[in-house]
Design brief:
Number of strands: 18
Largest sheet: 8 strands, antiparallel
Distance between the termini: 40 Å
Radius of gyration: 18 Å
Order of helices and strands: HEEEEHEEEEEHEEEEEHEEEE
Strand content: 25-35%
């Protein structure tokens, strides 16, 4: 493996120390009112909490010292797999794009993030809430699926697949959502090797705003949203460092969604992160609880 420049190596060491708890990186000014079924994926108290009959959301905002980095770790637990849903701009397959917050508010979301912006391309398999939106042809993107039991699965070898046949096979496996983006970040609890990926660069030193989702265990999810492209606030994070965040959180599976100017984190009626452009980018779809 190619050796990283000294500056990149130092940044990785500092981030690792922060994740191990050697540096006080995360604010802890709120306490959850009701304990969720399983232990949280981060140490310390959350900054934002929600506890419902079937849903527990705990969010920690992290600002690791002088690394010019701000990110949010969202621990989401539920007893009902139907709580993880998707919604479309204009509630239509080809509706006009909308902000994440507008779509989320219309669907009474507690927590929402931008999705894969599926209308930006014309390939791959797109399934939303049990309906096949697209199965036109093969795709060089990776695919994330969610089945009716709440299990996330990633498909990476896409070159020779028959889109229509695979879409029907997925429905037969009770898949209710399928997103096309990537790359896959974590498999079986370990960071996967990041190979050149047609959609986005995977360089060790490329820091960008990111939105990604992972799964720790049954109906236990972790969402990480990283601000970026904002000098003095947050430059963003590289994909290898994003992988490390998910591994430290205990994710068994993790997948990169649309990022950059689309990266948005909505909680309890407001956007709590700082989108890269200073305002929300209009998107085609969101994930929500």
């Amino acid at each position: 493996m190619k050796e990283l420049p000294a500056r990149s190596r130092l940044w990785r060491v500092l981030l690792s120390l922060i994740l191990l708890g050697a540096i006080g990186a995360c604010s802890t000014n709120a306490v959850a009112e009701t304990a969720p079924p399983a232990a949280l994926c981060f140490q310390g108290a959350p900054n934002y909490t929600y506890a419902g009959e079937k849903l527990w959301i705990n969010i920690q905002k992290c600002e690791p010292g002088d690394l010019d980095l701000t990110y949010y770790v969202c621990d989401v637990q539920t007893t009902d797999p139907a709580m993880l849903r998707t919604a479309l701009a204009g509630d239509q397959v080809e509706g006009p794009r909308e902000s994440t917050s507008d779509i989320a508010a219309r669907h009474n979301a507690r927590l929402a993030i931008n999705g894969d912006c599926y209308d930006f391309h014309a390939s791959g398999i797109i399934i939303r809430n049990g309906t096949v939106i697209r199965s036109k042809k093969t795709s060089d993107r990776h695919m994330l699926t969610l089945d009716a039991d709440g299990l996330l699965t990633v498909y990476t070898d896409r070159g020779q697949e028959d889109g229509k046949a695979l879409a029907q096979e997925l429905l037969g496996k009770r898949v209710v959502q399928a997103w096309a983006f990537g790359p896959e970040l974590v498999r079986d609890g370990k960071a996967v090797e990041l190979k050149p990926f047609g959609l986005i660069p995977v360089r060790d030193n490329l820091r960008e705003p990111r939105t990604a989702i992972g799964q720790i265990g049954p109906l236990h999810y972790v969402i990480i949203v990283v601000d970026g492209r904002s000098k003095g606030h947050s430059r963003g994070i590289s994909l290898p460092d994003l992988q490390e965040l998910f591994v430290r959180a205990g994710a068994q599976t993790a997948f990169n969604l649309d990022g950059g100017g689309s990266t948005t984190l909505y909680f309890n009626g407001e956007v709590i992160n700082e989108p890269a452009s200073g305002h929300q980018r209009a998107v085609s779809d969101i994930l929500l609880f």
